[in-house]
Amino acid sequence: MAVFLLQRLAAFIVTLLVASLVVFLVMEVLPGDPAALMLGVSARPDTLAALRSEMGLDLPAAQRYLLWLGGLVSGDLGTSYTYGVPVWELVRERIGLSLPLALIAICLSTLIAIPLGVLAAARHNKPADVGVMGFTQLGVAVPNFWFAILLILVFAVHWQVLPAGGFAGWDAGFWPALKTLLLPAVALALPQAAILARVTRSSVLETLGEDYVRTARAKGLTRRAALWRHALRNALIPVVTIMGLQFSFLLAGTIIIENVFYLPGLGRLIFQAIAQRDLIVVKDLVILLAASVVAVNFIVDLLYAVLDPRLRGGGHAG
Amino acid sequence: MKQLVVRSLAAGLFAAGLLGGTAGAALAAKDSLTLGMVLEPPHLDPTAGAAAAIDEVVYANIFEGLTRIDRRGEVQPALAESWTISGDGLVYTFRLQGGVKYHDGSDFDSADVKFALDRAMAEDSTNAQKGLFAPIASVETPDASTVVITLKQVAGDFLFNLGWGDAVIVAPESAAENKNNPIGTGPFKFDRWVKGDRVEMSRNPDYWGEAAGLAKATIKIIPDPAAATAALLAGDVDAFANFPAPEALGQFENDPRFTVAVGSTEGETILAMNNAGAALKDVRVRRALAHAIDRKAVIDGAMFGYGTPIGSHFAPHHPAYVDLTDRYLHDPEKAKALLAEAGYGDGLSLSLKLPPPSYARRSGEVVAAQLAAVGVKTEIIQVEWAQWLDQVFKGRDYDLTIVSHTEPMDIGIYARDDYYFNYDDAGFKALMAKLGATLDEAARNGLLAEAQEKLAEDSVNVFLFQFAKPGVWNKDLVGLWENSPVQANDLTEVNWKE
Predict the structure, then answer these.
(1) Which of A 268-287 lie inside 8 A of B, CB atoms?
(2) Strands B348-354 and B400-405, how do they pair?
(3) What residue in B sits closest to A50 (Cα-Cα)?
(4) Cross-strand pairs, B264
């Protein structure tokens, strides 16, 4: 287990270093001067030069890279060019939205998907299966932004029971804040649930055909007991993998949903920062997201070990 | 692309009226406003950034200058209660309002004015409109309520320029923090800014002038046009002074809960041409392009019919406006003839670089089709703002581009050296110099008319349309600006009907 953890830690550091270099280089070659963007078309050259030096843009690239990396290591993410506040503050505000949203969405999607997937597998080729498959097909096909707009039309515009968008903030109270996250969470969760349910179904079906399930049945276990006691646990490995991927996606890949519900989340922050050439914010966010993806993968690996005792053996682990 | 799909889809759903709105009756004693805005300001200091969104939050609400621009575009006294101008037009003596306090409780006096103007003019100033202050020779403060500004040369638009957001008066104690905690003298004081979501402000109880009608104002940032439509319909926002989805306006016009007002702006939208380009340096080619464009079709196709055709770089609502839209009528045959005369009878290829706003991208499609009809092939290149500034504005590496010039009274840009149009004309420069030295209103208007004619004559750019400002708000709301003589959401006179 210790070897496994050390391996993972080394991979973690190397991944982040590579990511930092790549994102720095990409930002270097990206056309566009952040100072020019801030000052607009009437700015005079001396004003631009003054701002560039204030922003530290006049230093050589290697020096800026090392300064940035040094800052990251010591926990200083720097100051946003456009907002003029520490990047950490921006990230903290956005995480307060993005993390709960991702968690609610992933919980919803799991709660819907796994029972449905198992049900479909248990009732293979029966009406329940066909129904679940039909709905999930629809869920995979319908783009989430379209579904989001439907939700808004029904719950916000027609019934006016939930806000059409925006985020009240946690300091407005738990329920008002949660209320603003409900529709986006549902819009995010359903398409994810559709995918997850299909994966669960095929994975459970596959394990139901395995020898050990047949053995269990031969020992006299009912089909249901064999399913819950033996098949499901093994079937969860691919499901957990997909959930890990989905969580990483939900944390930052929700730009479109954030736009439809005008939520100030991490996805929109990174999108805005790229358009405004707030390079420092882009770089920091990419590193943070890379770190979170690696961290989620690590948790998924640990879960594999929990689910499959063969993977706990250390050195020869996958 | 996805964005576009979202928009058209939402527009379709809304237009089809799939779900009719239910009445959201306004509360009787409402004294707060939620105003929607598309772009979030990068920060809240109008003296340190060009973004219009900054002024749209703070101008006249939080910060004030010596003068202010009112809803008709006229100069009004603000922190300067009155002024006198010396006979030679060089010395302005301002008498300041008494009893003015900043939101942090500190007093306002002439020293603040000197500080603010000196700061904007300083060597290390990051004021995006530093040029506004270029005519100033010195700022003196004979006493606490008097400021004397001496100019290097006569500047006919000096009082107007002092009314810009970039010229507001800030205090030395708070100036450095204004980006995130703006401290001004205005009728509203800043409460908080939830970045990415909203800016909140409330009535300043110690305001020197007439108190604001609203107790609280929240500016909500909604970047997506479909989301803006939904937010209005759901009652989450009370108003969009500049509504981003013209395609949905018809729906609001038919909804008794809303007022729709289409006002004008200072945004001249132009098909800018690189006047130093191999083909475009020939005035016949530039005129051919002007004849090739059907402005009506551009406005209908790209702006859903909202916009006023223009024939030069000048706003139609200004008293000095001359209608030159008939100078180059839509005439493809004439365009072809002019191109042939210039040696491009076999066709011509030009690049068309389009910045991100939908007006530019949509107009670009229409313009490209119209140019193709006269044998001018365009290669559309979509660029981001940062790339546009870099390649087109700074690098002047382009043939054609479409952009809206939103600064008020900015015809002077055609006299700038090294401006991105590459238009270098001694006659026009002389005209602008003369304008700067003229104070008499009628004489100024005459010179401005001459300048408009000159730009049309030289067909410097193809002048497309004046940007409209479609506003949608709750029918019980009064006092919002319909027009945008400066980019602002002046909330001082906004109120709910009894």
Answers:
(1) 268-269, 272, 275-277
(2) parallel
(3) B124
(4) B468
Residue spans of alpha helices (H) in A253-278? 255-260, 266-275
Give pLDDT tens digits for A276-287: 888 899 999 989
Residue A261: list chain B partners with CB under 8 A.
227
φ, ψ at B403 (rounded to 5°): -155, 155
CB A184 within 8 A of CB A148: yes
Q: Give the C-alpha separation, B41 to B53, whole Å.
A: 5
Q: Residue B43: which of A37, A82, A164 has the nearest Cβ?
A: A82
Question: For the residues of B320-336, what is the DSSP string, one character each?
Answer: T----TTTT---HHHHH
As given in the structure block, the two tokens for residue A60 are 């050589």
Residue B267 falls in which region: left (phi positive, over 0), alpha (psi -120 to 50) or beta: beta
Are residues A225 and A269 both part of a single domain?
yes
Are residues B21 and B232 in contact, defined by beta-carbon separation less than 8 angstroms?
A: no
Interface test with B, best of A28, A29, A42, A285 (most B CBs within 10 A): A42
| A129, A135, A137, A139: CA torsion to nearest 10 | -140
Angle between helices A279-307 and A61-73 (to 10 degrees): 50
Could A32 and B18 be called an inter-chain contact, meaning their C-beta atoms sit closer than 8 Å?
no
> What length is written for chain B?
498
Quote the CA–CA distance of A142 and B5 in Å, as a whole number. Answer: 13
| B106 closest CA partner among B173, B192, B191, B204 | B173
Which residues, other chains included, contact A25 with Cβ-Cβ below 8 Å and sequence gap of 6+?
none
Count of domains observed in chain A? 2
Q: Are B258 and B473 spatial neighbours (Cβ–Cβ below 8 Å)?
A: yes
Element (H, E) at A277: none
CB B460 within 8 A of CB B267: no
Rounded Cα distance between B124 and A51, Å, is 8
Same domain flag for A130 and A157: yes
- Contact between chains at A38 and B50 (C-beta distance less than 8 A): yes
Q: Which domains does chain B have, with CATH numbers?
A: 25-41+183-263+469-496 (3.40.190.10), 57-177 (3.90.76.10), 266-468 (3.10.105.10)
Torsion over CA of A145, A150, A153 and A156, rounded to 10 degrees? Answer: -70
Q: Measured at the alpha carbon of residue B435, what is the angle toward residues B431 and B441, in degrees to the nearest 5?
A: 135
Q: In this structure, are A50 and A100 located in the same domain? A: no
- Cβ distance A234 to A97 under 8 Å? no
For residues B124 and A146, what is the distance between their CA atoms, to the nearest angstrom? 49
**Nearest in space to A269 (alpha carbons), one of A256, A255, A257, A280:** A255
Query: Judged by CB atoms within 8 Å, which residues 189-228 of A form the interface with B?
Result: none
Which ipTM score applies to this complex?
0.78
d(CA A266, CA A271): 9
| A146 domain-assigned | yes
Burial B2-18 (b: 16+ CB within 10 A, else e): ebeebbeebbebbeeee
End-to-end CA gap in chain A: 13
Domain region containing A8: 2-74
Q: What is the pLDDT of residues B272-327, one digit of tens each?
A: 999 999 999 999 999 999 999 999 999 999 999 999 999 999 999 888 999 999 99
Tokens describing residue A100:
């709960």
Of all helices (H) and strands (E), which one includes residue A205? helix A174-208
pLDDT tens column, B125-153: 889 999 899 999 999 999 999 999 999 99
Length of chain A: 318
A67 with A152, same domain: the answer is: no
CA angle at A299 for the pair A298 and A301, rounded to the nearest 5°? 65
Token representation of residue B256:
């008794």
Mean pLDDT of chain A, nearest integer:
87
| Nearest of B388, B386, B374 to residue B462 by alpha carbon | B374
On whether residue A62 sits in a domain, the answer given is yes
